[in-house]
Amino acid sequence: xxxxxxxxxxxxxxxxxxxxxxxxxxxxxxxxxxxxxxxxxxxxxxxxxxxxxxxxxxxxxxxxxxxxxxxxxxxxxxxxxxxxxxxxxxxxxxxxxxxxxxxxxxxxxxxxxxxxxxxxxxxxxxxxxxxxxxxxxxxxxxxxxxxxxxxxxxxxxxxxxxxxxxxxxxxxxxxxxxxxxxxxxxxxxxxxxxxxxxxxxxxxxxxxxxxxxxxxxxxxxxxxxxxxxxxxxxxxxxxxxxxxxxxxxxxxxxxxxxxxxxxxxxxxxxxxxxxxxxxxxxxxxxxxxxxxxxxxxxxxxxxxxxxxxxxxxxxxxxxxxxxxxxxxxxxxxxxxxxxxxxxxxxxxxxxxxxxxxxxxxxxxxxxxxxxxxxxxxxxxxxxxxxxxxxxxxxxxxxxxxxxxxxxxxxxxxxxxxxxxxxxxxxxxxxxxxxxxxxxxxxxxxxxxxxxxxxxxxxxxxxxxxxxxxxxxxxxxxxxxxxxxxxxxxxxxxxxxxxxxxxxxxxxxxxxxxxxxxxxxxxxxxxxxxxxxxxxxxxxxx
Length: 541
Prior knowledge:
mainly beta, 7-stranded mixed β-sheet, 37% strand
């Protein structure tokens, strides 16, 4: 009997996984990742880039974060659902007050999901200053066999600090707002004209899993390898049936794993492309910034398809994510609540350019949304308690939610949902062009970040089965600062019954002078007589 109990105990311990503990001192350092511009970045433990994080399924990732910046910071595990631990989501103003300067906070992240994720700051534009890294969760049993696992982190890097760019985009001067600025491609935090820094090494006959991540502040990336096909096997942490593709595009925040089988010869090397689409600024034309580097089989071997588009074997006919089928097939939920969100960019009555859902531009509340849900009793069910400008949407427990997003903007937008994956149900154009309408199959693909092109719409669904406060926002980082966010408050009463904030969350709020209870302004109930509700769009603009 004792032997059986010991075996069961060992099996239970193995199933729970291990604790992986990291100490991160977050501070400013200097870096020159493309060899063209040295500037201040945000590093970890005196170095940049932050180290790649790899854990196994069911591990607990513990990050002891120490903030040595001159402003607050936070860490968000992009794609982690944080079931049962919504206070570790890292969204400042939503799940926590943030980590104050010279403060600290410990995140305990349950690696219940598998696949490709990333960890980044969720305060202002900090992750575009370098506070980001891939976060890989290896499955106990992989669906596919491959010889090598390779992270390919793609990033449009700016030679200017995020504060400077944010101030430009929120300027009251049109000429200042529309002054062009450009990103420079980094691959695994290296770039520039010396292609040795961005070369990917292949061995003949081996199969590689390339984990592609777009961690840029802005800008879609298109990726393809000359004379090599790719098989998509994962999007945003969801394993899919294989789909052979020639190229793909990744919006900010999206991840795609592909299998690539290397050629059997070392007689040639091949070009790969990671081109940036720029489309963040109104009034600035969309452009393609080409970037080409090398898949190397042998040093000094001739390079194929490197220079001429006419000779390229990459067709740029992108696959549609709505056509993918998950390995874990689940039918889409029904519809209990319909949430329409119209996206527009316009000049508001503060003379600045804002982005908005339903003409309401987001501004973070004083009291984090999760705290308001926890401390306002029955009034937590009233949207007004969370502040007009937090774009609050209350969800009843276990209801099926359909979100219809209509992009009336001239730019594409990558929308990311915290706390959930969603099912992609329909795509189409706002003018109802029948040739561009797409519907999912019986088992729709699920992901956490979706791209909606200009003048198009997407309809997604999820079930409200994860009590917490969760953002839905454009992941172009400055579009978030310009207001393109909304907040789902999911199951307020269940939050109150089942959630207890760690003391360290409260301590950081006290250090920052933020109330520990009340509505968005720190008052009782829905007492918000002088709540600022603007700015609002100017008519005719």
